[in-house]
Amino acid sequence: DANGILNVSAQDKSTGKHNKITITNDKGRLSKDEIERMVNEAERYKAEDEAQKDRIGAKNSLESYAFNMKQTLEDEKLKDKISADDRKKIEEKCDEVIRWLDSNQTAEKDEFEHQQKELESVCNPIITKMYQAAGGAPGGMPGGMPGGGAHSGGAGGPTIEEVD
Known about the structure:
Blueprint: E1 6-11, E2 18-23, H1 32-74, H2 76-79, H3 84-103, H4 109-133
Antiparallel strand pairs: 1-2
Helix pairs in contact: 1-3, 1-4, 3-4
């Protein structure tokens, strides 16, 4: 920009702490070509950072969904509303996905989303059936599915929230 070559800011979301740094070319140490190269690199890394953020969001969404489904099965209020066969299907698929996650931490976003869709294809019909048998979805959850809150991974599906 007009005041410097590069402005960088970072914020720790947990503490709210904010830092900012401006890199300048006060003594003419860098040529225009070097400055242009650095700006281009910054833009390229920005795109890579965004892709990494999306990938991690998809991974976190899948991991959260799998663990929340397992937690749903352990809920005392819901335990007797799910048949043993359905419970076993969900537990086995969740365990399979968790094992896959443990051995594929560096998978691509599409792979995480594919795993989540597979898990949802097993869990959603069972959970829907459970809520229909119980007289509807508690708390006005859309489609009788657990969760439906904010989603941080594009088309990866709903995240699960524990609701009393």
